[in-house]
Amino acid sequence: xxxxxxxxxxxxxxxxxxxxxxxxxxxxxxxxxxxxxxxxxxxxxxxxxxxxxxxxxxxxxxxxxxxxxxxxxxxxxxxxxxxxxxxxxxxxxxxxxxxxxxxxxxxxxxxxxxxxxxxxxxxxxxxxxxxxxxxxxxxxxxxxxxxxxxxxxxxxxxxxxxxxxxxxxxxxxxxxxxxxxxxxxxxxxxxxxxxxxxxxxxxxxxxxxxxxxxxxxxxxxxxxxxxxxxxxxxxxxxxx
Length: 240
Description:
Low-confidence stretches: 1-37
Distance between the termini: 16 Å
Strand content: under 5%
Structural class: mainly alpha
Oligomer: single chain
Mean pLDDT: 79
């Protein structure tokens, strides 16, 4: 027990860092809408409001995490599913982005001033790579081929404000989606799969950091004769 307790400091760092209020999480979904932008505020007042908003989200997240049991076992589907469920509750209650919402927000902000379709698609590829996402089906190459086809047909670079030509490209994209078996009504399922993949990756990182913390503590004289606890037995609620 003493050995587990000494992980307190490290656990606060690793769990807070991975699960709560990472910078990209701390943007409310309502900020998608331009009309939701706050009116001009003086510097001190704006900073105060930002601090209070972040503190509110942090307290909300901690309140949930103190109640929910999380097992650090990335190899157990049930543990991964439970962790994903808890983090979804945290996002909903604290008004945080999901991974798909963060991707949507990034796409929106990065591409809103891009005039042509080719640069737009190349920017999407750049965002995907930076997010560490894989193009498992080769969809990007298919979309670029579709763009080449449309531009060859219209005999000019395709601009995003060219509604007629963009309709042709959209039709080509619909064919690609059909070929790949991607349906709009299945998007919630894809988001759930993404959440599980992220949950597993985060649990793997938590496990790695917890093991490193225990190894560091074990090198100390007072813990040399203590057995290292199983990571799965750690209750994160004790370290919050």
